[in-house]
Amino acid sequence: MLNRCIDEGPRNIILDLSAIDFVDSSGLGALVQIVKKAKTEGGSVQVVTNARVTQTVKLVRLEQFLSLQPSVEVAIANVEKT
Q1: Number of domains in the chain
Q2: Which residue ranges does the record assign to the STAS domain (predicted)?
Q3: What SS3 state is found at 17?
Q4: Which of 1, 3, 41, 70 could serve as a FRET partner for 9 with CA atoms 20 to 30 Å apart?
Q5: Has residue 82 got a pLDDT over 80?
Q6: CATH number at residue 74
């Protein structure tokens, strides 16, 4: 579904994972693929997380690539800058 959204627009997506307690390797892999596709199409993905998800992402050193944000408001501000 997100792939279709990237294909058809909008190109910039905010994915709010702040209510998620756990993300595993397959979830991280899916996020990486979504971000790659968005970047290829000239867009971006801002990922809103909580402390647990952020910790998991940092363990695999993807925090910069996945553009983690502390809130939806910060993510919106980042999208508006582009």
Answers
A1: 1
A2: 1-82
A3: coil
A4: 70
A5: no
A6: 3.30.750.24
User: Do residues 75 and 46 touch, judged by C-beta distance below 8 A?
Assistant: yes
Beta-bridge mates of residue 44? 12
Read off the tokens for 31.
Answer: 């996020």
**CA-derived radius of gyration, the chain:** 12
Residue 30's domain comprises 2-81
pLDDT tens by residue, 26-69: 999 999 999 999 998 888 999 999 999 999 999 999 988 999 99
Label residues 17-29 b or e (16+ Cβ within 10 Å = b).
Answer: bbeeeebeeeebe
pLDDT band for 1, please (50, 70, 90 cuts). low
Q: What integer best gives the mean pLDDT of the chain? A: 89
Distance between CA atoms of 59 and 65, rounded to whole angstroms? 13
